[in-house]
Amino acid sequence: MTINQLMFTIFAAVIIVFSILTVTSRRILRAATFLLFVLVATAGLYFLLRFNFLAAIQLTLYAGGIVVLIIFSILLTSHIADKLEAPSLKKIIPAFLVAAFGGVITIITVIQNNFPGTVVTDGGRTDIREIAKSLISTEKFGYALPFEVISILLLAAMVGAIILAKKRKD
After folding, report:
1. How far apart are CA 32 and CA 123, in angstroms?
2. Domain map of the chain by residue range?
3. Of the residues 7, 39, 159, 167, which has the maximum number of CB atoms within 10 A of its CB?
């Protein structure tokens, strides 16, 4: 087994274990911490695949920004010592069936897909200026507008969640 295969196995195991812990944890702050480990391990996979830019975005945007917002919201709106109620069997069985169905569909799709190889003619170099221009562009293939819309949507969702959580029942 090569070092790349070993690292992939470790990252995959961390992602699987902490993903399961994220959705099964009854303490909300622990679930957010487990989610952080999943996002960092995903960035590790991107580094392993030599997608350094995508890995850096994963670390800064998701692991750094979104998880901090989630934890900040949890600290503002809930009691950390409280445990979430255990899900009933009526909720566990459909959730398991949907997850199993999604897993089977994913495996079938990956197995049936013919992944064609690509031939790189220019040495595999990507100009960082082209990436930067496409990220800040508002043209047809630019990403500035979608990032702004998503940030406004996340802000509205966060404010709405805090208002709903802080609302006191009389």
Report:
1. 41
2. 1-109, 126-170
3. 39
Distance CA 72, CA 57 (A): 21
The CATH number of the structural domain formed by 1-109 is 1.20.120.1200
CB 137 within 8 A of CB 144: yes
Give dist(CA 116, CA 102) in Å, integer: 24
CA–CA distance, 67 with 130 (Å, rounded to integer):
29
pLDDT tens series, the chain, 170 aa: 899 899 999 999 999 999 999 888 888 778 888 988 999 999 999 999 888 888 888 888 877 777 777 777 777 766 666 677 787 888 889 988 999 999 999 999 999 988 777 666 666 666 777 777 777 777 777 777 777 777 787 788 777 777 766 765 54
Q: What does the longest C-alpha to C-alpha distance in the chain come to?
A: 69
Q: Which residues contact 46 (CB under 8 A, 6 or more apart)?
A: 52, 54, 55, 58
Q: Given CA atoms 63, 64, 69, 74 in this order, what sign does their dihedral have? A: positive
Contact 37, 18 (CB under 8 A): yes
| C-alpha to C-alpha distance for 20 and 12, rounded to whole angstroms | 12
